[in-house]
Amino acid sequence: MQYAGVGGGSVGGVRGVDCDVLVIGGGIVGLSTAHALSRLAPGTRVVVLEKEPGPARHQTGRNSGVIHSGIYYRPGSLKARFAVRGAAEMVKFCAEHGIAHEVTGKLIVATERAELPRLHALVQRGRENGIPVRELGPAQIAEYEPEVRGLAAIHVGSTGIVDYGAVAAQLAESSGAEIVYGGAVDLISRRADRVAVRTTAGVVVRSRVLVNCAGLQCDRVARLAGDDPGMRIIPFRGEYYDLARPSLVRGLVYPVPDPAFPFLGVHLTRGIGGGVHVGPNAVPALAREGYGWGVVRPRDVADGLAWPGSWRMAARHWRYGAGEIRRSLSKPAFTEAVRRLLPAVTSADLVPTAAGVRAQAVLRDGTLVDDFLIRDAPRTVHVLNAPSPAATASLPIGREIATRALSILRA
Questions:
Q1: What is the spatial distance between Cα 137 and Cα 141, in angstroms, rounded to a whole number?
Q2: Three-state secondary-structure class, residue 214
Q3: Could you give the 3-state DSSP secondary structure of residue 252?
């Protein structure tokens, strides 16, 4: 059952709901968790609270739509295990439900000699993660992408594309959960046997287990529950362009990433609709849901400035950050970055399109959390870091979270 607001069953303007598991957050991870609960424990009463009027309005609905292979991630990490498994499961899920998708493969291209050792390291990492890769020279690059130039590349065949908003909508429909839209959580009261949650729309939900999948707001939800998450969400905006000449690119083309950062660099992605996305960069956002420089929320800025990790991160990575900001404010600079991979592109080929914001967890010492971060607390499971490739990995992540929630429920 899905509710656009808070109709029916209200007393004195407050609608009360009782359930076994309450999930806060209607993005792809929260909805996958609800879906997994219905599969692992049929009959479990699940409620999902989403503050927006529909699902997948933030990270899920604003990414580049890539089904990631898992090649980038440290062997044995949650990202590596869940992305490799999740990519195969995502393709199967889409096929079963008639969701448009395609396994396209992708190129990761080295354009400078200094990148060659990192490219070779990715080959080894891919093999350790069980991902088939093919090494390419310049002539072989041209066979895949005639307009792309590079010294060497690797082809990763298991990468694909999909509309994750459509996936989230299907998960919502298939989960059997009651999904209540249109109210942000503003109060959490946790007792020994139960958790009560109130929203700004006047809904009160009493649950035996709480799951925090609030994405950009997850650290705040954790603090509302009385838990110290040990991190803060620092929002990074990823700005995209559409390629006015999509015929320049056949598929997906990525640069060799810098292993010091959890960002993949400006890349070229042919989407499920046939257009080509270019981007994203990664610039600090002035609001947690700040999709442009003009969106400033003082509370969000103050939260970031008050966190010691923000200053330590900035001191450590200011050169990288300055380059990203330059490419954000200067279209010629952004074009120059794209031309490293695609020399034929011009500034006129790049048409601004919708941006996304990444919910990046930063520790007190300034470390950018690189893996998925899931922590248990009394009657609660907190998902504190689930940026890319969380959409790819959402089905196994959902099972992991659901398994933890059910263990609390059955204790």
A1: 6
A2: coil
A3: strand
Residue 164 CB contacts under 8 Å (≥ 6 apart), including other chains: 28, 56, 60, 61, 63, 65, 391
Mean local confidence (pLDDT), 312-320: 91
How high does pLDDT run on average in the chain? 93
Measure the CA–CA gap between 403 and 290, rounded to whole angstroms: 33
Judge whether 377 and 188 are in contact, CB under 8 Å: no
Q: Which residue has the tokens 């002035």?
A: 286
AA identity, residue 406 = L
d(CA 403, CA 332): 49
Residues 334 and 351: their CA atoms lie apart, in Å, by 12
**Which letter, b or e, does each residue of 33-58 get, where b requires 16 or more Cβ atoms within 10 Å of its Cβ?**
bbbbbbeebeebbbbbbbbbebbbbb
Q: Which residues contact 378 (CB under 8 A, 6 or more apart)?
A: 190, 192
DSSP 142-161: HHH-TT---SEEEEETT-EE
Please, what sign has the CA dihedral across residues 340, 345, 347, 350? Answer: negative
For residue 353, with 0-12 CB atoms within 10 Å meaning exposed, 13-18 middle and 19 or more buried, which class applies?
middle
Q: Give the pair of three-digit tokens for residue 243.
A: 């390629």
Which residue, 89, 123, 27, is CA-closest to 392?
A: 89
Contacts of 403 (CB under 8 A, 6+ apart): 36, 40
Q: Which residues make Cβ contacts (< 8 Å) with residue 131, sequence separation at least 6?
A: 69, 70, 71, 84, 156, 158
Q: What share of the chain is helix, strand, coil (3-state, %, to 5)?
A: 35, 30, 35
Q: How many other β-carbons are positioned within 10 Å of the β-carbon of residue 135?
A: 12
Which H or E element spans position 3? Answer: strand 2-3
How many residues are given for the chain?
411
Q: What is the pLDDT of residue 265?
A: 81
Structure tokens at 211: 């799951």
The predicted-structure confidence for 142-194, as pLDDT tens digits, reads as follows 999 999 999 999 999 999 999 999 999 999 999 999 999 999 999 999 999 99
- What confidence tens digit (pLDDT) does each residue in 85-139 have? 999 999 999 999 999 999 999 999 999 999 999 999 999 999 999 999 999 999 9
Q: Is 95 helix (H, G, I), strand (E, B) or coil?
A: helix
pLDDT at 262: 62
